[in-house]
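In the current project phase, we have settled on a layout for protein records. A sample record is reproduced below.
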Amino acid sequence: MRTNHTILLALCLALALAGCTTVKGDPYVPGEIHAQGVQMGTITHVGPSSVAQEPTLAGPIIGGGAGALAGGMIGSGGGAPGIAAGAVIGGGMGALAGGYGEAQMRRVDYGLALTVELDNGKTVIIAQPEDDIYTVGDRVRVMRDGKGYGRVQLQ
């Protein structure tokens, strides 16, 4: 019985720590371009925009681990079947609660919506973080990938 608690606790701690890992180097940011197609253009409008962070699995994983641990402890009075049932139910409820909590805490960064008239005559609007000062009339490079993501950069 003690061994089951130890294994369950070790599993929950491993899952919780997995959500705290970091990526070495420059992390991928939604909207960044990796395979680039470049076009030149002129900014015709600059306005405000909001850029929401992409969801992660940290909330559901940590919540599920904590819920499984708590559910297993609550169900321990019913023997092995009680521990298993408590861990499964607690894990599911914890994952739902963790996912909801993460969604509520997800940060929204404020950025810019840049309207650019490309040299080929087409117009595009790209929302991105406010990483530079853009004004109407600026000449820019518009970098896009095959998925529709784009990024504007001053020339």
